[in-house]
Amino acid sequence: MLQNKKVLVAGLGGTGVSVLAYCAHIGVDAAAYDANVSDNQCADLKDKFPQFPIFSGSLKDALLGYDVLVLSPGITRRLPEIRAFEERGGKVVGDVAILADILKNQSDKIIAITGSNGKTTTTSLVGHLCERAGLDTVVAGNIGTPVLEAWLARGGKAADVWVLELSSFQLETTDDLNADAAACLNVSEDHLDRYDDLLDYARAKDMIFNGKTVQVLNADDVFCSAMKREHRTVKYFSLNRSTNYYLDTVSGSLKCEGVDLMQEHDIPLQGSHNTANVLAALALCESIGLAREVLLENVKTFKGLPHRVEKVGEKDGVIFIDDSKGTNVGATVAAIAGLREKIWLIAGGMGKGQDFTPLRDVLRDKAGAVFLIGVDAPKIARDLDGCGVDLVFCDTLPQAVQQAFAAAQSGEIVLLSPACASFDMFKGYAHRAEVFVDAFKAL
């Protein structure tokens, strides 16, 4: 894909640096670009890749004379200068497309997972199940390790299976993934500062099914159901209806085509949304031929993820749950709906242009109050006004923890599920979680 081409790598975060390392490994003529490159970053890149020029400022100027643009996920393919580059015959790809091209003539299988919410949990669970089934497994992508960094770390050695978490941003530049099995878990409002609307965002997610992949689709989500393609094997999962993989709400049993798999209460994860994640993971793993008995046995050994509806402790009978990784409205709706107890919600931060009104219905029957923090607290309050739940403005997260604890009764939950990004007040969602846990411990 890159051989004998002049390659510009745009975006110099972890993904971009991994692409440069790959270009150095295969010996192609490449250059690096970022809109702003600090002196320290420039010195570090020159030290690692002395053979590659480094550009900043105008992307339009940087593109002159290059055949292929490798885009990092943080840069949209829709920039006018990138569209003009494509119109004059330039090729635009991402690191996932490069990996797919490497693997197309190998025996490595690919399982790919996208969705607005639950994809990190599902990817981690699928990776856990594949490893426990004895497969040489690589877990990479949006989950943390860029795919080419993972490939280079293996020295190009083939794997039994690559389990890839893919964001819509990564899928925009992956025209032909050709995964063996792929899932779209759900589609809810997120990144509407980058897409025209929810349908536009869903179209980017749908690119995960390009190729001959087995489709694993959420039958309860209208956008996912609409992704069904002709002449494909499709496996549906559902919490509400009998389909391929589903929850029998009467017996509390997970089932496949009517056959009992396991009891919902045996899943070691909080919330009904995680039941859906388990159903999707089972469908994906069985699609590549893994034995059901091994899968079911090892669902029970999965520990879950930090900052994803994670219980951090109890104080005077009040339960504290950290869902700091719930950075969009859909994630917070799922967290609240999945918990059975009364909720005292802490939310807010950078809203990314989202509509917060979907929270109204789920809060109405479940929440005592919402404690709002961060730059978009006033916007959230406007969207929730009149929903029948008290809205309390707090200057800091520790103040919100104290006020929520003061209001809660034994057996109820204080839930941090912000529905927002964290960078207005914190270094990231993990730092936000750390402040939450420290505030709990200080009570």
Structure description:
With 443 residues, the protein is of the alpha/beta class. The protein has 3 domains: 7-93, NAD(P)-binding Rossmann-like Domain (Rossmann fold); 100-300, UDP-N-acetylmuramoyl-L-alanine:D-glutamate ligase; 310-442, Protein-Tyrosine Phosphatase, Chain A (Alpha-Beta Complex), CATH 3.90.190. It is built from 17 helices and 20 strands. The protein has helices at residues 14-26, 39-48, 59-62, 80-87, 95-103, 119-132, 147-153, 168-171, 198-206, 222-225, 272-287, 292-299, 329-338, 359-364, 377-384, 397-407, 429-441, and strands spanning 6-10, 29-33, 54-55, 68-71, 91-93, 109-114, 137-141, 161-165, 181-184, 214-218, 234-238, 245-248, 253-256, 259-263, 310-315, 318-322, 343-347, 367-372, 390-393, 413-416. Strand 10, helix 10 (222-225) and strand 11 form a beta-alpha-beta unit.
In short, what is this structure?
Cell wall formation. Catalyzes the addition of glutamate to the nucleotide precursor UDP-N-acetylmuramoyl-L-alanine (UMA). With 443 residues, this protein is an alpha/beta fold.
Features:
443 residues, alpha/beta, Rossmann fold, UDP-N-acetylmuramoyl-L-alanine:D-glutamate ligase, Protein-Tyrosine Phosphatase, Chain A, nine-stranded mixed beta sheet, six-stranded mixed beta sheet, UDP-N-acetylmuramoylalanine-D-glutamate ligase activity, cell division, ligase, Mur-like_cat_sf
